[in-house]
Amino acid sequence: MIGSAGARRNPQILTFRGPGRRARASILRLVIGLVVALSVVGLVRVADAGPDQQAGGPRIERTVASADRPSGQLYRAAGPVLSTDGGLLVFWSGAGDLLTDDTNGAIDVFVKDRRTGAIERISVAADGGQGDGPSLNAALSADGRFVAFESRATNLARGDLNRSSDVFVKDRQSGAIERASVSAEGAEGNGGSFRPAMSADGRYVAFWSEASTLVSDDTNRTYDNGGYDVFVKDRLSGAIERLSVPLDRSQGSADSVAPSLSADGRLVAFGSYATNLVSDDTNGVPDIFVKDRETGLVERISVAADGAQASADSFWHPVISADGRFVAFWSAADNLVPDDTNGAIDVFLRDRQTGAVERISVAPDGAQADGASYSPALSADGQIVAFWSEAANLVAGDANGLADVFVKDRSSGALERVSVAAGGMPANGLSHSPTLSADGRLVAFWSEAANIVADDTNGRADVFTVDRAEPAGF
Question: What is the Cα–Cα distance from 419 to 416, expressed in whole angstroms?
Fold first, then answer.
């Protein structure tokens, strides 16, 4: 398993070419369960109030102290989320001692103000009532006012009777909470909705759902196809739109998941098994797409610069830059760029303006990674890319035999391993699931290491935040 300590790479992953359609539908359902399982065992307890991250501050801080480590398939795990300026960190936790009135025994979504150390529980009703089910997988608006998240709680909003996961949005200013995964008329979905993304102003919320009642004529749910589609809700007008359809608005032929929104909410990147979203999709593997909500056009991202189709899977949580120009994703394909012969999953970035495709997970001298790389995060302008990797040859001196978090500066080509102690000591536990502030200066990630900061004696995974503007070894 990729998440097992000490495992540098998994041959089953490196040779993966994708299951059949029935198996894929089962995998999607399994992933939902894995995410919930991650939340159950990833019980986190917030560390002491962190310092204001100004110039001259510490390079690395332990922002969240965990009571147990995440488990499961970490390359599909949700990480913490930083606000645009990096001042806020949103995370989810099953710990009951973060706040004195947290007595529901359920996983909740929290926001920590890294400057003051203040903690706020997000997954509560407008009257402060505690959620009666787990909440996780949060997204933030640019100013941190709105928080979108997934929850199985039935008492966060009125009329929630579907006994399924829903997507909610909390207004931290007013305390109001609304359910986003409903039809334009307010009818609730007849299936679960998951993993939201949010536009910068909080108006648009994207998510994926198995519900067939959110829009009319949603009839693509079959035994072979779980019927997962990608939707965008306009919180201002109440309108909801299904994005995972071709230009002629016919049904997608297979599941679509994991949306990422441009800052203005116009462009949506997502992964899909469907073969009819664009013409000439004949490679028989999942791909990454971008939908333009204004024109209805769908663009396949996971192709080579000359348009050649990917030779293997490109899937799970692409990320789009704020202006929509760049899309980062990970893929097992070996033909997206020339000379890809490492037989490993790599992180790629496509420039939608020029059509160029760049392999991110390579050493500064161009050497190919000797292990798999996953889960990219982007700065707002797409110039800084964070990811985690099992490779041992991306930077000099990587001898810990564990997954680490890296940050690539596309402008200079520089590659930095950030999951190290302040003095440069390699982490003694695996690190994964990074997120970036808008300017790329701050990177937060999960780590099981006990030596990144002093006095880390809890024996559990923690969330760390690195200020890349401070020199290594500070």
Answer: 9
Number of domains, the chain? 1
Neighbours of 27 (CB within 10 A): 17
Residue 179: inside a domain: yes
Backbone angles phi, psi at 189, to 5 degrees: -75, 155
Edge-first strand order for the sheet with 108-113 is 81-82, 88-93, 108-113, 119-121
Q: How confident is the model at residue 219 (pLDDT cuts 50, 70, 90)?
A: confident
- The residue with tokens 């700065």 is 379
Q: Which residues are within 8 A (CB) of 55 and not within 5 positions of it... i.e. 6 or more apart?
A: 469, 470
What sign does the dihedral 424-399-42-10 (CA atoms) show?
A: positive
Burial group, residue 364, by CB count within 10 angstroms (0-12, 13-18, 19+): middle
- Answer whether 246's CB lies under 8 Å from 254's CB: no
Number of neighbours of residue 140 by Cβ within 10 angstroms: 24
Range of the domain at 159: 19-40+84-393
Write out pLDDT tens, residues 404-450: 999 999 999 999 999 998 778 899 999 999 999 999 999 999 899 99
213 lies in some domain = yes
Integer-rounded Cα Rg, in Å, for the chain is: 21
For the domain that residue 100 is a member of, what is the CATH number?
2.120.10.30
* Cβ proximity of 40 and 94 under 8 Å: yes
Q: Are 233 and 240 in contact (CB under 8 A)?
A: yes
Separation CA 27–CA 22 (nearest Å): 9
